[in-house]
Amino acid sequence: MLLGAVADDFTGASDLANTLARGGMRTVQFVGPSQDSAPADCEAGVVALKTRSIEPGEAVRQSLAAARWLLDQGCRQILFKYCSTFDSTPAGNIGPVAEALLDLTGAELAVACPAFAKTGRRLFMGHLFVGDRLLSESGMENHPLTPMTDPDIRRWLRRQTQGEVGLIPLDTVRDGPEAVAAAFESERRAGRRLVVADATSDDDLLALGKALAGHRLITGGSGIALGLPDNFRAQGLLSDRPAELPVPRGPGAVLCGSCSAASRRQVEAYLETVPGLAVEPADLLSGGMSALQAADWVESREGAAPIVYSTADPTVVAAAQASFGRAETAAAVERFFGDLARMLADRGVRRIAVGGGETSGAVVEALGLKSLAIGAEIDPGVPALVAERDGPLGLALKSGNFGGPHFFAKALDAIGSP
Ligand SMILES: Nc1ncnc2c1ncn2[C@@H]1O[C@H](COP(=O)(O)OP(=O)(O)OP(=O)(O)O)[C@@H](O)[C@H]1O
Ligand SMILES: O=C(O)[C@@H](O)C(=O)CO
User: Please, are residues 196 and 157 in contact by the beta-carbon 8 Å criterion?
Assistant: First the structure.
């Protein structure tokens, strides 16, 4: 293994795995920190954790365990993947995990770049935009777990770190990889160990990627990985042989626990032609709705690839959180989707499209999957995935805000056939 990544959620892991696989690296998404040895032909390994919204000390512990395993597999470079909308709270977990990984890898400095131009996440003068809005006006300020209320990534990250945070502005990035390398060097001399780098286009990300060739640690969204495969290719280290994957065949279902604006539109579009079951946290907590009831409902909709969703508007989410607590509500919803996915797979569902990073983590963990092979790209940032669970099981793990309006129908087609 040449490149090892630690991802703070499951959809983020498959987003990064998608970029690396498209770049020609033989990539495997691993589930959780402790694994046996990786397959010999794996060139990039992405360990999917569910550390985005947990207590910072535990996030650090799990991230270090994953990074140690990756280093044991021979990785020359570690990438800490977080969200392109920098999902975190003033307490973490991006800063604490990045600083712990700096110490582990012995790196003197690491870039911090959430930009992902293809999905509209652009960084200018350290400020993050989603489309034409600042992060803090993009809808992310209403996120159920990590409301992003400050678009200045330097300031937000500094609240989470021990050390100062630097900046490589866009002008320097546009001056090319040598100028970027010189800027990193001057930040290093100034003692800044985490350096936010601007990028508004794939060309910027490629220039940054080239400048990062010798870095032990990189942190960012999947965009920062765009240029990394070429660094290994230039050293003659890639086999450039694409993997062949089995095709999952069988019934499908959609599970959506994401409440993002994009997911709300996608759920609405899917419901135009397919039956749906809306679940509410209050019913899950009171026992009025259970995973077993939902599994029976899905099974009774034969052949329809129905959708089960908790997706709701921000006001509805806020009301549920006010009544039952933010963590308690999320835990109930995630447990429900995990249990439901396991029951559906046990009953023969072979294609599952999931909306939301935390929801995807709950689903993949409940299914007991150990690793996921990376297939074709469905929409930017979302690949088709194939796991082994009594035969091939097709999955799509969609980040909250990714995908076009008809993502779910497209995903079920891409991850196998009925
Ligand atoms: N109706 C609801 N009320 C309150 N909380 C909900 C509701 N539906 C889902 N949730 C919780 O909100 C969180 C949504 O997070 P999730 O990561 O799944 O989606 P997302 O944040 O849109 O996606 P991503 O992290 O990929 O951007 C989950 O913890 C989920 O359990
Ligand atoms: O970077 C992104 O936006 C996604 O891969 C993600 O992490 C959302 O959960």
Answer: yes
